[in-house]
C-alpha cells in the first residue's frame, strides 16, 4: 500500500511539472505585455522594463529561471500589484473563497442528499416530482440569477442580510446560499438515480430477507453503495467551488481568488497566472487522491486492489 | 478495518475544519477593527451629519509606491494622502500647496520654490531634499511615470530615460531645507500643470529606505503629508482615510473619514447604494441607468476617454480625402450614444473631449472649436461617390479590428450597420481581438480600420494632439503634416497662455476639419448616482480621480 502511494506521488509531481511547462509557454503566447498602460509605453520604455524584469531573455532561459525559483519556493512578485508576493496574493484571497465554497458544499450536500434519498424512496410520488423539478431548475438556471435575486430581495428589500462586501460572518451567507443551489441540484440528482439502481439489486433483496430493519437496509446498504459516484463528483466540484467562482464573488464583492485569476490573464500578470494555476492544480490532484481514499472506505474491494498493486 | 476508516474520517473532518479556520481569518473591511464604529449612513438619520464619506472603486490599489504607480486608483489615494509643490483646484488648475512661493527666472528655465512649514505624519518636516530624493528615485526605479519628467522638460530627463545619463543628473537641487531649485531644458508651458501629478510628490528617504521592499504595499508602509492619512487597507476589500491632523491646512479639511469599498459589479454597487452603505456609485449599465433616470441622485459624467477610428493609409481608398470625410459624416453619432450605448457617452466632433480643458478665459475647448466635420448622410453619400470615382472603384470591402470589450462590440456593430447602409458598396468585416492584440496590430500596421481609444496623460489639450506629429509613438497611422508638426513645436514653447491656446485650437482643425485624417466617434461617459449630502467633491479628468480635501457632508 505504501508503494501504491509512492507511485501516486511520483505521478502527481510529473503531472504538476507538465502543467507548469505547458502553462508557461501557452501564457507567453498571449499578446501584449504585463505592464499597465500598454497604449502609452514607448519602445524604449518597454525595452528598459523588459530588461528590469528579465523578459528580454530568450524563453527557455526565462522558463529555466522560473522553475529554478519555484523549486526554491519563490513564486515571484505580481506585475499588476507591483511588488506584492504571489504567495501573499493567493493566501490572502483563498480564505473567503474556501469559506463560501465550503459552506455551499455543506449546505448543498446535506439538502441534496436529503432530497435525493427521500425522492428515491418515494419514487414517482408528488414529492419526487417536486424534487426532480427543483433539481432540473437548479442545474439549468445559472447561479448568478439566484445571486442577483438573493442580493436584491434578501439584501435590499428585506434587509435581513448584507447585499455585498465582506465584513463579518453574515456577509458570507448569501454568497454561500447562491453557490449551494448548483450543489443541491447535482447531489440530489446523482444520489436519486444511483439509489434507484441499487434498490433493485439482489443483495438488497437478500438483506431484507435476512430481516434487517428497513432503516438498516437503506442506511447501511443502499445509501453507502450509492455514495461512490456522488463522492467522485463532489471531490472535483469542491475544488472548483472552493478555489473561487468568478461570478458569485464579483456579484457579492467577495475578495476571493476566482476573480483574481481571470483578471491576471487579462493583464498578462505572468507570475500570478502561474501561481494560481499551480496552486489550483496541486489542490485538484490532492483531492483526486483524497477521493480515491474515500472510495476505499466506502468499498472494501477497492482497498484490496491497493494491496494487489504492491 | 472499521477503526481504520473511522480514523480516516476524523482526518477528513480535521482537514475541512482547518479550512474553515483559515477562511475565517480574512473578515472585516477597512477600519472595522477600530473602537469607534463607523457610521452606517442610514438614510434619514436625523442627528448631526457625520463627516464620513462612503464610496466605491472598481479596482484594487495597484501600489502606493510613488516610483511604481501608473493607474488612476493609486494616483487618487496618493493625491489625498500626499501633497507636492502644487495641487489641483476645483477647475483642475495647479495651485500652490507645499510650495508657498514660486519664482521663475527671466529665461523661464530656472524655477525656485520656497516650501512652507509642513510636516510628514511621523513629525519630520517636509524638506526640499524630500523632493530631490523622490524625483530622482522615480527615475532610478525605472518607474512607469518617469516620462513625466521629460514631458515637464526637466533638465537631463530625456538623457536619463535614454540611459545616457544617471538619475542623479536630473535638474533638481535642494538649495537648503526650504528652497528647491528646478532647472529645465527648455521653457515649457506644461511644467506647472504637471507638478500636481504623482511622480512629482516628495518622498521621505528615511521612511522609504526603512520600508524597503514593502514600501507602498500596506497602509502603514506609506507616509502621509497631505490632507488625509491612510488608516487601513484590506487588500481587494476596502481602504480607509482619516483626517490628517498634522496637515498644514487641516483647518480647511472637513471630512473625518472616507471609506472606499471595492465593488466590481455595478448592480451590486447600486444595491449597496440603496441600503445606504455607499454615498456614490459609478458606471451604471444601460438598464440600471434607465431605472434611475429622472431621480435627483442621477448624474451623467463625461469622461475624457475618446473613441475614434484609425484609417490605415496603406489602404489605397483611405488616402482619398473624400472617402475619409464621407466615413465620418455617414455615422449618426447621436443615436450611437443615446440609444445604442445609453451609458452617459456623448458624441465627439474633434480630438479633444468636452469637459476636459478650459481656455485661459475659462471657456471649454470643445465649445470654442465646435463640431468639426459634422455633415449629413446626403453630404456623405455625395463625397463617397466622388471619392470612389477618383480612385476608380465601385465599392470598398474593408475590415476593422475591435478590442473584445462589450461597449466596443456594440459600437462596432452599429458602425458596420451605419456605414453599409449609408455608403452604397461599403462592406465592413469586424475582427474582434484582445485589447493588447489591438495595440500590437496598430503599431505593426496590421489593420485596415482600427476602433481605437485614447485617454489623457495630463490635463491639457496637447495630450490628444501631439500624438499625431510625424513619427509620433502613438500616431500608428503614418499621419504627417509639416504645418501640424511645426505648430506643435511652436505651442510647446509658447509661454503666453492665450497665444498657446489659439495654436491648440488650430491644431485640431488641421487634422479633423482640413485633413479629415481621423474619424472621432464619441467620448465615453458614465452614469453615476451621488447622494445629495455630498458637497464639494472634486472629480478630475486625468491623473488622480478625486480631491477630497474640500469635500463635506451636509
TrEMBL record, chain A:
<keyword id="KW-0472">Membrane</keyword>
<comment type="similarity">
    <text>Belongs to the binding-protein-dependent transport system permease family.</text>
</comment>
<keyword id="KW-0812">Transmembrane</keyword>
<dbReference type="InterPro" id="IPR000515">
    <property type="entry name" value="MetI-like"/>
</dbReference>
<dbReference type="Pfam" id="PF00528">
    <property type="entry name" value="BPD_transp_1"/>
</dbReference>
<dbReference type="Pfam" id="PF19300">
    <property type="entry name" value="BPD_transp_1_N"/>
</dbReference>
<protein>
    <submittedName>
        <fullName>Peptide ABC transporter permease</fullName>
    </submittedName>
</protein>
<dbReference type="InterPro" id="IPR035906">
    <property type="entry name" value="MetI-like_sf"/>
</dbReference>
<keyword id="KW-1003">Cell membrane</keyword>
<keyword id="KW-1133">Transmembrane helix</keyword>
<feature type="domain" description="ABC transmembrane type-1">
    <location>
        <begin position="94"/>
        <end position="295"/>
    </location>
</feature>
<dbReference type="GO" id="GO:0055085">
    <property type="term" value="P:transmembrane transport"/>
</dbReference>
<dbReference type="InterPro" id="IPR045621">
    <property type="entry name" value="BPD_transp_1_N"/>
</dbReference>
<dbReference type="GO" id="GO:0005886">
    <property type="term" value="C:plasma membrane"/>
</dbReference>
<keyword id="KW-0813">Transport</keyword>
Automatic annotation (TrEMBL), chain B:
<feature type="domain" description="Solute-binding protein family 5">
    <location>
        <begin position="94"/>
        <end position="475"/>
    </location>
</feature>
<dbReference type="Pfam" id="PF00496">
    <property type="entry name" value="SBP_bac_5"/>
</dbReference>
<dbReference type="InterPro" id="IPR039424">
    <property type="entry name" value="SBP_5"/>
</dbReference>
<protein>
    <submittedName>
        <fullName>Peptide ABC transporter substrate-binding protein</fullName>
    </submittedName>
</protein>
<keyword id="KW-0653">Protein transport</keyword>
<dbReference type="InterPro" id="IPR000914">
    <property type="entry name" value="SBP_5_dom"/>
</dbReference>
<keyword id="KW-0571">Peptide transport</keyword>
<keyword id="KW-0813">Transport</keyword>
<dbReference type="GO" id="GO:0030288">
    <property type="term" value="C:outer membrane-bounded periplasmic space"/>
</dbReference>
<dbReference type="GO" id="GO:0015833">
    <property type="term" value="P:peptide transport"/>
</dbReference>
<comment type="similarity">
    <text>Belongs to the bacterial solute-binding protein 5 family.</text>
</comment>
<dbReference type="GO" id="GO:0043190">
    <property type="term" value="C:ATP-binding cassette (ABC) transporter complex"/>
</dbReference>
<dbReference type="InterPro" id="IPR030678">
    <property type="entry name" value="Peptide/Ni-bd"/>
</dbReference>
<feature type="signal peptide">
    <location>
        <begin position="1"/>
        <end position="23"/>
    </location>
</feature>
<keyword id="KW-0732">Signal</keyword>
<dbReference type="GO" id="GO:1904680">
    <property type="term" value="F:peptide transmembrane transporter activity"/>
</dbReference>
Amino acid at each position: 500500500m505504501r508503494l501504491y502511494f509512492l507511485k501516486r506521488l511520483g505521478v502527481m509531481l510529473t503531472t504538476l511539472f507538465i502543467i507548469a511547462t505547458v502553462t508557461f509557454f501557452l501564457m507567453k503566447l498571449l499578446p501584449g505585455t504585463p505592464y499597465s498602460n500598454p497604449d502609452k509605453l514607448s519602445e524604449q520604455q518597454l525595452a528598459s522594463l523588459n530588461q528590469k524584469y528579465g523578459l528580454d531573455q530568450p524563453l527557455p532561459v526565462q522558463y529555466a529561471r522560473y522553475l529554478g525559483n519555484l523549486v526554491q519556493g519563490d513564486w515571484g512578485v505580481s506585475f499588476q500589484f507591483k511588488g506584492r508576493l504571489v504567495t501573499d496574493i493567493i493566501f490572502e484571497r483563498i480564505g473567503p473563497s474556501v469559506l463560501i465554497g465550503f459552506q455551499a458544499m455543506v449546505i448543498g450536500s446535506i439538502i441534496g442528499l436529503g432530497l435525493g434519498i427521500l425522492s428515491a424512496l418515494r419514487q414517482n410520488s408528488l414529492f419526487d416530482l417536486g424534487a426532480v423539478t427543483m433539481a432540473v431548475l437548479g442545474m439549468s438556471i445559472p447561479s448568478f440569477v439566484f445571486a442577483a435575486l438573493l442580493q436584491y430581495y434578501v439584501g435590499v428589500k428585506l434587509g435581513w442580510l448584507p447585499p455585498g462586501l465582506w465584513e463579518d460572518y453574515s456577509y458570507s451567507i448569501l454568497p454561500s446560499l447562491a453557490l449551494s443551489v448548483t450543489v443541491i441540484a447535482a447531489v440530489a440528482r446523482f444520489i436519486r438515480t444511483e439509489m434507484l439502481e441499487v434498490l433493485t439489486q439482489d443483495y438488497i433483496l437478500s438483506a431484507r430477507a435476512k430481516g434487517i430493519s428497513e432503516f438498516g437496509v437503506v442506511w447501511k446498504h443502499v445509501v453507502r453503495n450509492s455514495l461512490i459516484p456522488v463522492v467522485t463528483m463532489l471531490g472535483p466540484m469542491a475544488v472548483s467551488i472552493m478555489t473561487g467562482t468568478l461570478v458569485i464573488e464579483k456579484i457579492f464583492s467577495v475578495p476571493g481568488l476566482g476573480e483574481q485569476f481571470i483578471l491576471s490573464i487579462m493583464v498578462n500578470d505572468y507570475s500570478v497566472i502561474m501561481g494560481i494555476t499551480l496552486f489550483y492544480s496541486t489542490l485538484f490532484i490532492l483531492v483526486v487522491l483524497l477521493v480515491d481514499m474515500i472510495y476505499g472506505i466506502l468499498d472494501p474491494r477497492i482497498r484490496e486492489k491497493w494491496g494487489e498493486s504492491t | 478495518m472499521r477503526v481504520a476508516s473511522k480514523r480516516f474520517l476524523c482526518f477528513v473532518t480535521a482537514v475541512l475544519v482547518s479550512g474553515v479556520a483559515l477562511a475565517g481569518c480574512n473578515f472585516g473591511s477597512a477600519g472595522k477593527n477600530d473602537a469607534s464604529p463607523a457610521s452606517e449612513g442610514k438614510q434619514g438619520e436625523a442627528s448631526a451629519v457625520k463627516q464620513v464619506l462612503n464610496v466605491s472603486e472598481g479596482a484594487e490599489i495597484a501600489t502606493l509606491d510613488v516610483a511604481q504607480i501608473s493607474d488612476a486608483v493609486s494616483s487618487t489615494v496618493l493625491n489625498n494622502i500626499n501633497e507636492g509643490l502644487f495641487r489641483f483646484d476645483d477647475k483642475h488648475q495647479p495651485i500652490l500647496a507645499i510650495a508657498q512661493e514660486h519664482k521663475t527666472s527671466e529665461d523661464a528655465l530656472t524655477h525656485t520654490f520656497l516650501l512652507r512649514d509642513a510636516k510628514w505624519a511621523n513629525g519630520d518636516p517636509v524638506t526640499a531634499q524630500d523632493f530631490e530624493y523622490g524625483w530622482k528615485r522615480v527615475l532610478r526605479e525605472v518607474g512607469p511615470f518617469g516620462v513625466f519628467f521629460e514631458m515637464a522638460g526637466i533638465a537631463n530627463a530625456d538623457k536619463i530615460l535614454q540611459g545616457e545619463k544617471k538619475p542623479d543628473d536630473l535638474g533638481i537641487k535642494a538649495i537648503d531645507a526650504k528652497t528647491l531649485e528646478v532647472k529645465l531644458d527648455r521653457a515649457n508651458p506644461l511644467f506647472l500643470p504637471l507638478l500636481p501629478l504623482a511622480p512629482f510628490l516628495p518622498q521621505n528617504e528615511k521612511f522609504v529606505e526603512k520600508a524597503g521592499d514593502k514600501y507602498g504595499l500596506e497602509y502603514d508602509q506609506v507616509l502621509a503629508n497631505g490632507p488625509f492619512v491612510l488608516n487601513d487597507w484590506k487588500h481587494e476589500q476596502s481602504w480607509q482615510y482619516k483626517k490628517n491632523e498634522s496637515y498644514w491646512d487641516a483647518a480647511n479639511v472637513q471630512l473625518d473619514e472616507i471609506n472606499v469599498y471595492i465593488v466590481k459589479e455595478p448592480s451590486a454597487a447600486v444595491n449597496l447604494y440603496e441600503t445606504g452603505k455607499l454615498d456614490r456609485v459609478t458606471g451604471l449599465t444601460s438598464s440600471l441607468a434607465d431605472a434611475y433616470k429622472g431621480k435627483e441622485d442621477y448624474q451623467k459624467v463625461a469622461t475624457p476617454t475618446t473613441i475614434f477610428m484609425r484609417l490605415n493609409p496603406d489602404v489605397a481608398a483611405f488616402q482619398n480625402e473624400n472617402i475619409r470625410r464621407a466615413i465620418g459624416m455617414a455615422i449618426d453619432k447621436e443615436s450611437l450614444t443615446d440609444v445604442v450605448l445609453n451609458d452617459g457617452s456623448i458624441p465627439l466632433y474633434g480630438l479633444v473631449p468636452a469637459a476636459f480643458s478650459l481656455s485661459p478665459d475659462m471657456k471649454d475647448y470643445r465649445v470654442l472649436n465646435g463640431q468639426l466635420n459634422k455633415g449629413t448622410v446626403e453630404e456623405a453619400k455625395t463625397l463617397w461617390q466622388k471619392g470612389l470615382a477618383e480612385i476608380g472603384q465601385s465599392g470598398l470591402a474593408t475590415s476593422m479590428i475591435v478590442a473584445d470589450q462589450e461597449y466596443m462590440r456594440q459600437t462596432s456593430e452599429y458602425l458596420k450597420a451605419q456605414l453599409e447602409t449609408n455608403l452604397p458598396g461599403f462592406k465592413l468585416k469586424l475582427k474582434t481581438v484582445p485589447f493588447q492584440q489591438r495595440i500590437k496590430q496598430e503599431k505593426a500596421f496590421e489593420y485596415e480600420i482600427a476602433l481605437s481609444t485614447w485617454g489623457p496623460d495630463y490635463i491639457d489639450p496637447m495630450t490628444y494632439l501631439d500624438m499625431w506629429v510625424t513619427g509620433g509613438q502613438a500616431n500608428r497611422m503614418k499621419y504627417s503634416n509639416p504645418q501640424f508638426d511645426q505648430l506643435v513645436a511652436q505651442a510647446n514653447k509658447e509661454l503666453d497662455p492665450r497665444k498657446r491656446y489659439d495654436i491648440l485650437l488650430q491644431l485640431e482643425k488641421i487634422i479633423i476639419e482640413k485633413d479629415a485624417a481621423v474619424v472621432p466617434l464619441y467620448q465615453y461617459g458614465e452614469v453615476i448616482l451621488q447622494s445629495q449630502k455630498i458637497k464639494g467633491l472634486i472629480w478630475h479628468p486625468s491623473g488622480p480621480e478625486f480631491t477630497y480635501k474640500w469635500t463635506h457632508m451636509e
